Amino acid sequence: MKPAASLTLVGAGRMGSALLHGWLKGPEREISVIEPSPRPEIRALAEEGRIQLNPAPSESSIIVLAVKPQQFAAVSEQAKAFVGPKSVAISIMAGVRLAQLSRRLGTERVIRSMPNTPGAIGQGVTVFTAPEGAKRTDLSAARELLAPLGEVHGPVDEAMMSAVTALSGSGPAYIFLLAEVMAEAGVAQGLPRDLALSLARRTVEGAAALMGESGDSPEALRKAVTSPGGTTQAALDILMDTGGMPALFRNALSAAANRDRQLSQEAD
Ligand SMILES: NC(=O)c1ccc[n+]([C@@H]2O[C@H](COP(=O)([O-])OP(=O)(O)OC[C@H]3O[C@@H](n4cnc5c(N)ncnc54)[C@H](OP(=O)(O)O)[C@@H]3O)[C@@H](O)[C@H]2O)c1
Question: What span, in angstroms and rounded, lies between the C-alpha atoms of 81 and 55?
């Protein structure tokens, strides 16, 4: 059997597969994938010789952990076999801290990142953190290897990761909720449910695309569609009133960030 590749992916689920497909489009490198139940497309890549699937363990220069956080304790035993003194471990597991990664994997060279769901289609945003004094090569490896998920920011202070989780990690769910509640409100105004849902979906998709393309700030875009005394203004007066969206979001993000801090403590 060939030795394990220099880049090892542990967990080829939704996010892991998105990473892998991105890497395969980049510079040629030997890639190993550790995955107990590989999807057919991952098996096909192994049959084509583009990756090694579940090779015998040996030291890998970079190991990327893309399993569920609750699988980490069990997976770390197996993953350790691919980690040597010079290995860099990059985690996309929500809430697993740098110290926990180091302790379980037996290397100081660890990167912790927080992607979000649109990463599965390369449209996400990922923030990463690294130990103080991390090698520049480790930081650039993280930037390069996380790029298939979308935009990458970092390194940030690890203390910021709970806020990152609350904003961009959980954020897509807030936008899906927005589409849901807009559709419900349309139904309440007498629209058929199907039409209300289509209008809400397309409005969220279109507004996001416009924001992405224009480069203007969200505030400038909002002001541009708000004529004084008009219909949008009437709605925004309610949405932005005391107890409206600004206050609701402050409370919601605070609850998410607190929950993240609690979860990482429980994981100790
Ligand atoms: N999806 C998101 O939007 C999102 C956002 C932010 C962060 N993340 C983080 O990204 C990570 C991956 O999420 P995901 O949505 O890609 O999860 P997923 O689809 O469940 O992928 C995890 C994969 O790891 C496999 N696995 C289980 N045990 C393993 C082992 N011992 N060795 C190797 N692989 C093993 C799982 O196989 P089985 O299915 O057989 O268990 C599964 O295929 C999570 O830690 C999550 O916190 C995800």
Answer: 11
Centre of ligand 1 from the C-alpha of residue 214, in Å: 34
57/151 same-domain check: yes
The verdict on residue 2 lying in a domain is no
Ligand 1: residues within 6 Å at CB?
10-16, 34-37, 66-69, 71, 75, 78, 92-94, 115-117, 169
Q: Is 89 annotated as a binding residue?
A: no
DSSP letters for 161-176: HHHHIIIIISHHHHHH
Does 179 lie in the same domain as 154? no
- In this structure, is residue 83 part of a structural domain? yes
CATH code assigned at 182: 1.10.3730.10
User: What's the 181 CA to ligand 1 centre distance in angstroms?
Assistant: 29
Looking at residue 217, its amino acid is S
Q: What is the pLDDT of residues 29-68, one digit of tens each?
A: 899 999 999 999 999 999 999 999 999 998 999 999 999 9
